[in-house]
Design brief:
This protein is mostly helical. The protein has one domain. The protein is built from eleven helices and four strands. The strands form two sheets. The chain has a two-stranded antiparallel ribbon. It has a two-stranded antiparallel sheet with strand order 2-3. Strand 2 and strand 3 (181-184) form a beta hairpin. Helix 2 packs across helix 10 (206-234) and helix 4 (110-119) packs antiparallel against helix 5. Residues 26-40, 47-56, 265-281 and 283-289 have low confidence and may be disordered.
């Protein structure tokens, strides 16, 4: 048995890495806060002023002062702890190997995606998720390969934060969490529910689950590393650019493949115009391969 204090510290580190995966806009638009706001505002963003839904062009940010201080702390932590680890991993493991690792974790996340597909009543997507999991787990060697994509079964993302948005739960405030990064209160809740949907939460022992959770978040962090570096380097106001990037990407991700769920500003269903997405946020550790 490991000493209790080591187990507690390992749990904290695993939680930090896992949750950080959810709050990364992995790719970053090279623009600062002077960019125009997105044309397709999230009608379910929480409007603190009580205005009509859809008028807000971003997640509400009532805690901006605290969030900015937290971001400065995160940048220091990133510089001295996470970046050296990510650089070492990128140097040691070739790109093909890193992509294979991301595919394995994406495959392990299929049960969570499936539950959310069913909760969203997306039966065809649920069928695709089950087919991908069976094919990639067997022929694809536990997800190392992705033969399902070659059969026309493309991977998609579904998470509980998205499920909540589709039933009308508002985003809540934008918050910058220490070590974890940007997220909304709605998506923060969704992370814990998605963990309950993953069989690994129950089947792995405490020690193995700690290693799995930490690796899960680290791989997502590594996949976002270059894009986050580019965003920071190209931004006059990094906080505003990060907040804007997270809003645009998360909103596009919520409504991707779910346009028929989207309410119009007049209260009825309305389609979402196509949005070009140069990056992707990944709640719950979703991975792009």
């Amino acid at each position: 048995m490991l000493p209790k204090h080591l187990v507690r510290r390992a749990c904290v580190l695993a939680a930090i890495l896992t949750l950080s995966a959810a709050s990364i806009p992995t790719g970053a638009r090279a623009a600062d806060s002077s960019e125009n706001a997105p044309a397709n505002a999230d009608p379910l963003a929480w409007d603190l002023d009580g205005d009509a839904a859809g008028e807000s062009l971003g997640f509400p940010d009532p805690f901006e002062g605290v969030n900015r201080q937290t971001l400065r702390f995160n940048q220091s932590l990133d510089q001295w702890v996470l970046r050296p680890i990510v650089r070492t991993y990128g140097f040691v493991v070739p790109n093909a190997g890193r992509r294979a690792v991301r595919r394995v974790f994406a495959n392990l996340n299929c049960p969570s995606v499936l539950v959310n597909d069913l909760l969203q009543r997306e039966w065809n997507d649920a069928r695709i998720t089950v087919s991908r999991f069976v094919i990639n787990t067997t022929i694809g060697l536990a997800g190392i390969l992705d033969p399902a994509a070659g059969l026309g079964l493309e991977r998609h993302d579904s998470d509980f934060g998205q499920t909540l948005a589709l039933v009308g739960v508002k985003s809540g405030p934008f918050i910058m969490l220490p070590a974890l990064g940007p997220i909304t209160t709605r998506d923060f809740l969704g992370l814990f529910v998605d963990a309950l949907f993953r069989p690994t939460t129950y089947f792995l022992g405490p020690g193995v689950e700690i290693i799995y959770s930490g690796s899960y978040g680290f791989v997502a962090r590594e996949g976002a590393f270059d894009a986050m570096q580019a965003l920071e380097a190209s931004s006059v106001d990094y906080y505003s650019a990060l907040r804007n990037a997270y809003y645009q990407d998360r909103t596009a991700m919520i409504w991707n493949r779910r346009e028929h769920h989207r309410p119009s500003l007049h209260g009825g269903p309305g389609p979402l115009p196509k949005v070009r997405r140069p990056w992707r946020a990944r709640p719950g550790g979703q991975f792009t391969t």
